[in-house]
Each structure stands twice: as C-alpha cells, then as structure tokens.
Design goal:
The protein is 20% helix and 36% strand. With 163 residues, the protein is an alpha+beta fold. Strands 1, 2, 3, 4, 5, 6, 7, 8 and 9 form a nine-stranded mixed β-sheet that branches. A hairpin with a 6-residue loop joins strand 4 and strand 5. It is globular and about 60 Å long. 25% of the residues are buried.
C-alpha cells in the first residue's frame, strides 16, 4: 500500500511574511508567458520593482520584446522571484512563483508618472531608456502564488495572503 502525503503545508504567518519579503526585495525575476501562435511557454529575465502604492510587482518593458507581444495577446503569466544565496544548494533557498494577470500601462494612465518616478528611484540605471517611446510599465496583479521556503517547506498562497 502506497501512502501519499500532501507536500503543501498550511499557510501560516511566517510563510506570508517570507512571501511578502521575497516580493518586496526582488530586483530581478523570470517572467513566463505563452507564445501567441503555439501556446508554448516562453521565459525571460526581467527587472522587478514594486508599485508605489499597492506593492504589486512591476516591470518596465519594451513594446518590441517578444514577451510584451505575448502579454498583449494573453495577460496571464507567471513570475518567479528569489535569488539563491552565495553559498549552499540553490534549490534550498526560498523562492516564490506568482500567478498573475498583467496590466499593461500606457503613458496616459493616471498613475504612470508616480510609477515612473518611483521606479527611477529604485532602478536609477533605467534612466537611460525609461523615456524611450517603446517602453511602458506592466503591473503584475497577483492571483495566487506557490512559495517554496526551502526543502520540505511548500505553501500555496492566495492573493489575500500577500496583502
């Protein structure tokens, strides 16, 4: 007889805190989108910031990029956050996979300038390209998340767990 156990732990305050910290501290992440023509997955590295009021992850991306075109066709995406420490097995370090709905902002959005100023303050090197006509912001509105807090520490989180 095979005994199956659920590897997902009950979500607790420590898991919620770690998940929020991973989002808040992220500078880079991996964005997963679906290829419009085939539905195949496509992953790319992006810079990550936080929305100045909601705290949702944001990024600045070019309209010329493949992933922007994919998000226009299907705004469902995932973002992986969490960098391994300098020592130890990278798979034992915390990371979070966010399931999101991408909100593509245009320059005429009411909060565009506030987001731009906040992003520049936290990503000063983006000054080189932030005002290029093809660059715009994406807000990743989190719908759910999977937290791997280290070996044997898996949690399924709701959007409310991250507020």
């Amino acid at each position: 007889m095979t005994i199956k156990t659920n590897p997902i732990r009950p979500t607790d305050p420590d898991a919620r805190t770690l998940a929020r910290d991973l989002i808040k501290q992220a500078k880079f992440g991996a964005l997963g989108v679906l290829t419009p023509d085939t539905g195949a997955p496509h992953v790319t590295r992006i810079a990550i910031g936080q929305h100045p009021t909601s705290g949702q992850p944001i990024t600045l991306i070019s309209d010329l990029s493949f992933h922007t075109k994919a998000l226009h066709k299907n705004p469902s995406c995932s973002v992986l956050l969490g960098e391994p420490a300098s020592k130890g097995d990278p798979l034992t370090h915390p990371r979070i996979s966010l399931q999101c709905h991408a909100e593509l902002l245009t320059r005429d959005s009411s909060d565009y300038n506030a987001i731009r100023d906040h992003y520049l303050a936290t990503h000063p090197k983006s000054k080189l390209y932030i005002d290029f006509a093809d660059f715009n912001f994406v807000i990743f509105n989190i719908t759910s998340a999977d937290l791997n807090a280290g070996f044997g520490k898996a949690y399924a989180l709701t959007a409310n767990d991250l507020n």
